[in-house]
Amino acid sequence: MQSSKQAKLSADANQLLSELAVHALLHLHFKIHASPRNLPTKERNDLLQKWLKPKLKSNRYKLIKKPLKSLTQQAKGESGNLEILLERCVGADKPSNPQPHLDSYLLLINEIEKKLGTTVLLSRPEKVDLSHDQHGCLLCVLSENLNQHFDDNNALIAPISMLFRGPLSQRSLFLGSIYASNTFHYDVQYQDDQFVRITLDLA
User: Fold this and answer.
1) Residue 94 within a domain
2) How many CA atoms lie within 13 A of 129 on its CB side?
3) Based on the domain organization, do 6 and 83 belong to the same domain?
4) What is the pLDDT of residue 98?
5) Domain hosting residue 57, numbered range
6) What pLDDT does residue 99 have?
7) Which alpha helices (DSSP H) does the chain contain, by range?
8) 115 and 85, same domain (yes or no)
9) Are 52 and 76 a contacting pair, CB within 8 Å?
């Protein structure tokens, strides 16, 4: 009984740490994109340390106070890199069984649709209806045929371009879901107050 309780606590801690790492990395990601220059590791560390500091005092993160403190301590000094340490925490709550890329992609899209309360569209770039769901958000895969991105074994062979339109809160949910994925990562091709266009590729 005791061991199952400990296992649950460990799983809860892993999930909490994974969620916090995603939010911290997203915060850093937006700061990097808002900066006119490339931020060195020390400045990235400082931004993350500043964002994480109040979380150490929060009751919500009481369960992971020790590992969080350990992370921030490890990142101090010349060679410390808090960004890399946090990236290792992302997905700490997920099982490590490998899945075909197509399955992982469909699970990711399903998760994003639930979080945003929308349906992901598929359209050629020149045919996208940018006014779709004016009071909600737009998320569209920019492709003529999704099958051309995967081979016969369901492995991803070509990056997938995606366009999002909506408020920053929903943009964070969208990008955060990809950030938490063990299979995929994204590169921002374009963004402004309304839109962000990314390419989805293997991590």
Assistant:
1) no
2) 8
3) yes
4) 54
5) 2-89
6) 62
7) 2-34, 41-56, 65-74, 82-89, 101-116, 168-179
8) no
9) no
